[in-house]
Amino acid sequence: MIKNHEFSKLFPGGTKLPQIDAIRDTLKVIDINGLNQINYHIIKKSVENKVFVDGTIDGYTVAAIDGTKFFGSNKKSCPECLKNTKGKKIHCFHSGAVMSTVGMGPKLVIGFEMYKPGQDATSKDEGELNVGKRLIKRSE
Questions:
Q1: Neighbours of 2 (CB within 10 A)
Q2: What is the pLDDT of residue 125?
Q3: CB 129 within 8 Å of CB 118
Q4: 76 Cβ partners below 8 Å, 6+ apart?
Q5: SS in 3 state form for 91-103?
Q6: 66 within 8 A of 97, measured Cβ to Cβ
Q7: Spacing of C-alpha 10 from chain mean position
Q8: pLDDT of residue 41
Q9: CB-based contact 111:99 (threshold 8 Å)
Q10: Distances 126 to 2, 52, 69 between C-alpha atoms, Å
């Protein structure tokens, strides 16, 4: 994503982006539960401030869930990595399902849930439907 300049619009011109090693080292120690708590308080404050009083589509607050790949590598892996084999190459990656509001008004992430490796069978990674169900149950 860095090589493809996908982050260039997020930073002012001339800003030096971090190297991939720095990003990887940071991602290794990020507390996902802490991110969930921050997001929970953002949603709670949005509800308190009546952000969704008029809804997002025709008076209803509408949310969508979609699975997405966050990052991957052909060289590095961890115990939580999902694996995709193409020929002799193994691609290791992390994916998750994200629930966010759609329609008019602010686009807020309601929650996210990471896919878990080897959950559906001993050699098969968890499917998007199972992750989505877990996300809905946790977001109630």
A1: 12
A2: 62
A3: no
A4: 24, 92
A5: EEEEEEEEEEEEC
A6: yes
A7: 17
A8: 92
A9: yes
A10: 28, 33, 13
Give backbone dihedrals phi and psi of 104, rounded to 5 degrees, phi first.
-70, 155
State how far the Cα of 119 lies from the Cα of 17, in Å rounded to an integer.
Answer: 36
DSSP, residue by residue, the chain: -TTTTTTTTTS-TTPPPPPHHHHHHHHHH--HHHHHHHHHHHHHHHHHTTTTTTTTBTTB-EEEEEEEEEEEESS---TT-EEEEETTEEEEEEEEEEEEEESSS---EEEEEE--TT-SBTTBPPPHHHHHHHHHHHH-
Strands 89-102 and 109-114: antiparallel
**Structure tokens belonging to residue 53:** 């009083």
Residue stretches of the chain with pLDDT short of 50: none
* Residue showing tokens 């507390």: 31
Pairwise CA distance, residues 114 & 68, whole Å: 10
